[in-house]
Amino acid sequence: MNKEEIKDFLRSKRGYLKEGGKRLRRILLKKGFETTISQCKEAIREVIQEGNVVPSTKTSPKVLFYDIEVSYGLAKAWRPGYKLRLTYDDFIVHPRIICISYKWNDSEEVHSVRWDSNQDDKNLLELFIPELNKADFIVGHNADRFDLPWIRTRALLHEIDMHPKYASVDTYKVAKYNFNFPSNKLNDIGLYLGLGEKLPSGIKLWDDVVLKQNPEALEKMIAYCNQDVILLEKVYNSLKKMMLNQNHAGVINGTVKQVSPYTGSKNIELVKTTTTKAGTVKRLMKCKDTNEYFEMSNTDYNKYLNTL
DSSP class of residue 259? Predict the structure, then answer.
């Protein structure tokens, strides 16, 4: 297999461009093609340089922003108090998911799904979970501790299949461990950064939805949940200016790692070179299209230089 034949193979199999010469040769040998390491290296370099790789329809990771509202449970109690002891048998009705609002990073539209007229959340989950599964990563506020476990628990109850793990960004965790906001609540971060705020609500809204089954109150709650998602995206987009990437557009698109993880573009620049205690070289890079930072290993950085 000569170099031109290898290049034709790489043009039709974009994913192999991220392999090194040695590994590509082993792959080709397993497929019954004789070649050399140097031919593989040259073919990889030239196909990347010529830009004849068939472009992917995806230019950036597909990000899903979401938020849920949950009903309170109804339980038996002899009297009011702050230290009530409730057992499983005390519950008459367990909490359920009232609604889920979500939007994609490449769309302005906010979608919502709701429980049915019997306050059953099965259909809601059957509609939402396939959307959840499409995302390259998902974003929520305090979602790793609250939203996602609730979705998973109710899906398990209804025997609805969902992925065992999701690439998740929790803006509450990001705010708590990387910044020093006066408060890490979504509403307070939005106000602090001048991005907006949540819609007003209160326990009466939950009473009207759960106990009175008021349709107008349900619409009000969905509007409240929608606004949370809009604010969530704004907060995430602000926080990510000082966050490293959560995914890699180049790998997702089936090309190479030596590009911007945000756009898949080679329009990147070196900001700073650092070393770890063990002497490992790290490159702090910046995507010039989005002005966002990311890290690149020294090996990948040298591969990137070879493509220029």
Answer: S
Is the same domain home to 12 and 127? no
Q: Is the pTM of this model over 0.90?
A: no
For residue range 4-20, what is the model confidence (pLDDT) as tens digits?
A: 888 878 776 766 776 78
Same domain, 298 and 211: no
Between the alpha carbon of residue 220 and those of residues 68, 127, 200, 270, the distances in Å are 14, 21, 10, 49
Name the domain count of the chain.
3
Q: Does one domain contain both 11 and 81?
A: no
Give CA–CA dist 19/27, Å, rounded. Answer: 10
What separation in angstroms does the CA of 303 have from each of 41, 202, 239, 266? 11, 56, 30, 12
E strand intervals along the chain: 63-70, 74-75, 91-93, 97-104, 111-114, 137-140, 168-170, 268-275, 281-287, 292-297
- Domain of residue 226: give its range: 63-241
- Digit-coded pLDDT (tens) for 71-114: 999 999 888 888 888 899 999 999 999 999 999 998 999 999 99
Is the same domain home to 166 and 73? yes
Same domain, 199 and 268: no
Distance from C-alpha of 229 to C-alpha of 250, rounded to nearest angstrom: 27
Angle in degrees, CA 137, 108, 110, rounded to 5: 75
133 and 230 part of one domain: yes
Running DSSP on this structure, what letter comes out for residue 159? T
108 and 206 share one domain: yes
